[in-house]
Amino acid sequence: MDACYISSHSGIDDLIDKSLISVSENKITMHDLLQQMGRDIFRSESPSEPGRRSRMWIPEDIYDVLIENSGTKTLKGMQLDMSRIPELEIKAEAFVKIRKLQFLKFYGTISKIFFPQGLLSLPDELRYLCWKGYPLKTLPTRFDPKNPVELDMGCSRVELLWEGKQDLVNLKVISLVDSTNLVRIPDLSSATNLEFINFSNCTKLLELPSSLQHLEKLTRSNSRLCKNL
Length: 229
What we know:
Mean pLDDT: 93
Largest sheet: 8 strands, parallel
Order of helices and strands: HEEHEHEEEEEEEEE
Number of strands: 12
Strand content: 15-25%
Structural class: alpha/beta
Shape: globular
Distance between the termini: 34 Å
Low-confidence stretches: none
């Protein structure tokens, strides 16, 4: 949230003081009616054109926007339960128009989204990328991962996230659990804020980069069941 908003902690405190949210055991919750009210507000931004809304979470709307390539730069957050859509083949330029997207979460059933012609790009503004079962061998070459705080790509088909060294100064978490095609991890020497890595059950992973030993904030790692490591 700090990556997306100025003074997010004080903003959260204000919402707590107004009884709009509550915090318990390090989790933020809100009443169902408040959640629905917020969703109604975002739907009213563009009732007939979902791609012009700033937040999307309705599976049917996301399905239509992706297949029609009708997203816009207005869109900042997209959350999709893939178990609620049929298989979806989309064009390589599916994310080109939604270049301001900061939050992307595809979860549920292992990915039903396919790119017959590959994927041209992902939005450079992304702060949070969660894509369970990501279907390609690598992230797009036109994606600059300088902004993400967390990459969560469990059960993906990725073999290598990217080639060469990238500016990863904001990255705190990488999780590639059960990505059984992962062979190599890229240079992470610039990820000076990295706190947690999880490569559990990446059975083809051969080695960890030597740069990990120099990351002073790295406090947790999991490479369990990496039998070729």
